[in-house]
Structure formats: structure tokens, C-alpha cells
Task: inverse folding
């Protein structure tokens, strides 16, 4: 046990609840810089802003018998460091008698996470600023192309008109890509706070928005009763719309047949959208969630190549993930895991 503990740089602690006596191996001083003999000694070393959280965690664990886990700041001299401190209650017939656990210093990891978060925020700000600033020169290009087309229509031959149409079409597609990039960059920073969301209401609104497209393709959308989830309603609406639009677009020669369903498990809900369309080669199934990755030409299927990347980003913001199960010619099922709402919501 000593060899194992020394190899992990961990400190094991054992707290006698009744006597309020704490022991550490190898020692509390090796981690905290001071000896700790009681619960209050431990709490005194914790950063003042985290003390109430730690007390609640211990009380809840002793009351319920469930393990506790926190990432806690503590003060060592002039330095603030981070630890993770899982604890496990030990009970007998009269209730909790001890708590045992392990403490690890995770300051290096938390520092890296903080730097990574800052880096991601800067990248998102850059993507937003770059996309936003590109809008104006692009509008100018489109405007002057239309002016040339209107003013010099009598002087242009067929090839000249075709060239202007190609340029205007390219500018329109560029605008769509920039709009998509703006949306992508704002998933984290411009999202709404999470709340209880009725997926049935979200789906109903999306189907209303897509009604013309559904009728145009003679699409049949069947739905099950969907559960409530915890999330950002506007982003979940965007996720629904992107997946349903893809199911209609890639239906092949037959009228689209799409099914929306959900399964319920502890801690999450899995939303599934299945179609009977052209399917996706398994070798391409990771690539389709990357920004601007397309499997088809613009002539075959219109789009910017950012819709599924948006879906992935939305799922990740909700603490879930998106997956696809498909074979060429056999349709596709996109599954998105989403968190359940808290009982108090």
C-alpha cells in the first residue's frame, strides 16, 4: 500500500466522525504545509469561498451514505492551490462512523484547463470578429455585381452574364458560410442559460418552420412523445432543424420518411432522428461533424457544410454527444444525448 500510494502522489485520509479525529498518510503536512487533526483544521485550510460547499458535501454524504466529490481551492502560504478530494462514508447500524478518501493536488491540471479555456475564448472571439468584419466587403462585392448586371445588361454577351451569375452565386454561398461561422462561434458565448425544455414544443415549432419544405418533398415525419430535458431551448431548436433538414435533403429518390424518438436512461435522454435516405459511408462518419466538411458537391446537395458541426457543438455544450449509425444506401440514425432536468426544475 505504501509503494502504491507513493507512486500516485496521493494522500489518504481517514476521519473518525464521532471523535472528530483525522489521520493522513503519508501526512497532511506534505500536501497542506501543516498538520490536520480535526474537520475544522481541514476547513480552515480551504479557500473561504469554498468552505460552505465542502461542509454541504460532507453533510450530504453522511446523511445519504453516497460518496462525495469536490474540486477545492486551499491556501498554502501566499499560494492558492487546487485539490480533488473524493470521500466515502463508512456506516454501521447506528449511522456513519467514518469517512475515508484520497486527496490529490490538481493545481497543474486546473492551470492548464484555465489556459485552454482562455485560448478557446480568444479563438471564438477571433472567429466572431473575423466573420463579422467579412460581412461588409462581401456585401459590397454582391452590390457591385448586381449594379454591373443591371447597368450593363445590354452590353454583356451570354458568357458575361454567366460569369456574373457565377460570381454572385459564389458571394451568396460565402455569405451563408460566414453566417454559419458566426453561429458556430457563438454557441458557447451567446447561448441562453439552461432550463427545463419541453422537446415536444421545440419539435412542433421546428416542424411549423419546415412545413413548406416538408410539403414540397412529400416528407412524412413521425414522432414519439419526447421527454423534457435541461438545456438551451433556442439551441435545441437549431439542432432539431439541422438534423431534420438533412434527413429531408438526403432522402434519395424516394419521398423522405423520418422518425423522431427518444430513450430514457438514468441521468440523460437520448434523442434519435432516423431516415431511410442515401446513408453515409462509415469511413466518413467522423468527418461529417467537422466544420465545412461536405461529402457531396454543391450541385448534388446544397449546403455550407457547417450544420452538423453546429449540432456537435450544441450537444457538447449540453454535456452530451452526437453520433451517427449508418451504411450507404440504408439510411442514417443521428443520436444526441442530453441531460435530464433536475427534480427541482
Result:
Amino acid at each position: 500500500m505504501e509503494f502504491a500510494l507513493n507512486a500516485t502522489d496521493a494522500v489518504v485520509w481517514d476521519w473518525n466522525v464521532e471523535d472528530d479525529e483525522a489521520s493522513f498518510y503519508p501526512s497532511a503536512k506534505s500536501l497542506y504545509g501543516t498538520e490536520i487533526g480535526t474537520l475544522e483544521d481541514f476547513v480552515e485550510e480551504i479557500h473561504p469561498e469554498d468552505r460552505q460547499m465542502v461542509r454541504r458535501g460532507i453533510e450530504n454524504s453522511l446523511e445519504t451514505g453516497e460518496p462525495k466529490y469536490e474540486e477545492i481551492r486551499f491556501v498554502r502560504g501566499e499560494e492558492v492551490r487546487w485539490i480533488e478530494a473524493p470521500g466515502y462514508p463508512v456506516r454501521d447500524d447506528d449511522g456513519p462512523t467514518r469517512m475515508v478518501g484520497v486527496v490529490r493536488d490538481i493545481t497543474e491540471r486546473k492551470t492548464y484547463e484555465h489556459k485552454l479555456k482562455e485560448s478557446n475564448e480568444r479563438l471564438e472571439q477571433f472567429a466572431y470578429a473575423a466573420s463579422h468584419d467579412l460581412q461588409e466587403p462581401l456585401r459590397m462585392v454582391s452590390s457591385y455585381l448586381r449594379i454591373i448586371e443591371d447597368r450593363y445588361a445590354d452590353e454583356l454577351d451570354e458568357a458575361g452574364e454567366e460569369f456574373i451569375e457565377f460570381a454572385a452565386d459564389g458571394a451568396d454561398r460565402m455569405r451563408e458560410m460566414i453566417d454559419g461561422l458566426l453561429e458556430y462561434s457563438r454557441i458557447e458565448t451567446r447561448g441562453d442559460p439552461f432550463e427545463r425544455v419541453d422537446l415536444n414544443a421545440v419539435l412542433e415549432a421546428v416542424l411549423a418552420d419546415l412545413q413548406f419544405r416538408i410539403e414540397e418533398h412529400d416528407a412524412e415525419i413521425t414522432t414519439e412523445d419526447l421527454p423534457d430535458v435541461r438545456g438551451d431551448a433556442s439551441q435545441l431548436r437549431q439542432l432539431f432543424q439541422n438534423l431534420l433538414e438533412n434527413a429531408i435533403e438526403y432522402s434519395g429518390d424516394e419521398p423522405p420518411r423520418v422518425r423522431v424518438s427518444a430513450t430514457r436512461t438514468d441521468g440523460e435522454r437520448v434523442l434519435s432522428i432516423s431516415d431511410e435516405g442515401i446513408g453515409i459511408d462509415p469511413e466518413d462518419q467522423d468527418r461529417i461533424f467537422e466544420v465545412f466538411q461536405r461529402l457531396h458537391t454543391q450541385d448534388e446537395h446544397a449546403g455550407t457544410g457547417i450544420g452538423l458541426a453546429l449540432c456537435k457543438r450544441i450537444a457538447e455544450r449540453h454535456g452530451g454527444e452526437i453520433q451517427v449509425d449508418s451504411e450507404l444506401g440504408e439510411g442514417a440514425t443521428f443520436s444526441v444525448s442530453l441531460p435530464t432536468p433536475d427534480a427541482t426544475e
The chain has a mean pLDDT of 83. The radius of gyration is 28 Å.
